[in-house]
Every structure is written in C-alpha cells, then in structure tokens.
Amino acid sequence: MKFAAINTLPPVGKQKRYSPQVLTYIHALEENPPPGREPIDWKLVTNLPVEDLSAAVEKLGWYALRLKAEVFHKVMKSGCRAEEARLETAERLAKSLALIAVVSWHIFFVTMSARAKPEAAPDSVLTFAEITMLDRIDASRTRSRLQRPRSPLTCCKSPCLAAISPATMIRLPATWSSCAA
Known about the structure:
This protein is α+β, with helices and mostly antiparallel strands. Helix content is 36%, strand content 12%. The protein contains 3 helices and 3 strands. It has helices at residues 53-79, 90-116, 128-139, and strands at residues 2-8, 21-29, 41-46. A 3-stranded antiparallel beta sheet has the order 1-2-3, with helices on one face. Helix 1 (53-79) packs across helix 2. The chain is flat, with a radius of gyration of 21 Å.
C-alpha cells in the first residue's frame, strides 16, 4: 500500500473561484491474490488526512463499505425495480419505498451471508415460511432464473436469491468483508 498527500489545483478556467486542495491518493495492490482471480488494485482519492498506514487502511475499509451500499442500491433498483414505481401521491411512493427498502435489506443480508459462508444452510438466514414461499414462486415460473450449480444458501431458485450470483458479486478483500448483521 502506498499513499501520498498532493496539493491539487483546480482546472485552469476555475482557479479564480476555487482554491487548491490537499488530496491524499491511496493505492492498494494485492501482492498474492488467491489462484484464479485478478489481484485487488484500488486507487482512491480523499480529502481526509492520512498520516499513517492505519489511517490509509481505515479509508480503504470505508471504501469497502461503500461497495456494499452500492450492492444494496442495485438490489433496490434492479431486483425490486424501485425506479419503475409510478404512484400518484407522495404518500403511496413513501409506503412503497419503505416496503422495497425492507425487502432489499433482507436480500442484501442473504447476499452478504452467502459471501461470508457459501456453504451455510438456507435456514441459517431464512425462515421455513420464507423458503417455502420462494420455492412456490419458483415452481410457478416456466423457466428457472438460476442456470448454475447452487450452494446450500441458494437451494431455492428464487428471484431474490439470484442476487447471490457470482456474476453480480463485487470482490471484497476477505479481511474486510463481513456478514451484515
């Protein structure tokens, strides 16, 4: 890991309106990645002070959390189609978004749990009623959404568990990833 504070000037045409800023550039490169995957190579810029290695690691930890927030919003937008809600009143929209947020959080929790413990049993994060309901939804489909071998956590082929697909996962360093609680 490398980091350096650099005095950064505003663009040429805006130097009269904006003053220079001290920005810290952090570069984290994984030296020995696990076999079969590319090394983590993060380049971050922050206006927060970074005085030592522990402060740089702290900023990288915050960045890793930002990636989790992006996954949560992806579930809301793509999985639950929050942007497609065409409701006539603000009250209806607020109620709809509240429900979507709860459902999205649960899907996000299952996703993070599957990443932390891919071989865990489904009932470690889902109730029997939830597993039964998801299996019924899947049985009513004409075509399965998951076309790959499944871990125990994805035993039911439900649409919300499709969020666990490796293609949609954002790779996080093992030391920073944790099960959402």
